[in-house]
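Before surveying the methods themselves, let us examine one representative protein, pairing a chain with its fold in token form.
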Amino acid sequence: MRKITPFRAGLLLSSFFITFFLLCAIGALLAVPTLDDILTNIWSEEMQLSLRLSLVTGLISTILVMLFALPIGYTLSRLDFWGKGVVKTIIDLPVAFPELVLGLCLLLLFGKTPIGTALNALGLDFVFTKKGVVAAQFFTALPYSVRIMKSTFDYINPRMEFVSRSLGYSQFETFLRVTIPLAGSGILASTVIAFARCIGTFGTVLILAGGSYMRTETLPITLYLNISYGNMGMALTSGIMLIGVSFIAIFIFEKTEAKL
């Protein structure tokens, strides 16, 4: 049996201490409502609309996020170009500042600016609409997926790509036939985390899409609105559903992370 040193005991104690408090916090949320309350709230019209909107916009946003995260992650991992550090820093910025700030930036951009006016003319009106929910989720989740994809490509041995190029494949063919299959676990992990972030996006959706009752109401917005109304049953049920989505996402991420 391995000897327990003071250093090892301290490491284990700090890990179990924080795990215990987080477990108590989550348990407190699960312990308050009764099963009947949860089932009643889940089948309410508001919760059904909120859940449906969250799933639909979350799926659309996740697909869009991965379409951009793959090439951006590959670019930051494999290519050297002028301004690479600046590009990486700006893409990572939404991770560092609050979602409310990101929502405010997008609200101003998609408002009366030339870009916002041009997008409106094309039928892409993002301010206080369901399209705004997708845009808010996309810009919130993208930095996380890009970071995972960059780390994934960093771990893939470039020699395999060099061998492919030496056999006559172009860089694009090598990317499709060699790099993408080797990055399968990372792509799955990135997709799961992107979906979880899209479903859980609150501040950006609130500012850009408005968080309107029964219109642009996603699960986090349902939680916020019902706490404001004093309807704790609906708020707690929303929180439980968000924890369920997060738990499944983290579980899949941990399983796939070991294969990276």
In short: Residues 112 and 118 are 10 Å apart (CA to CA).
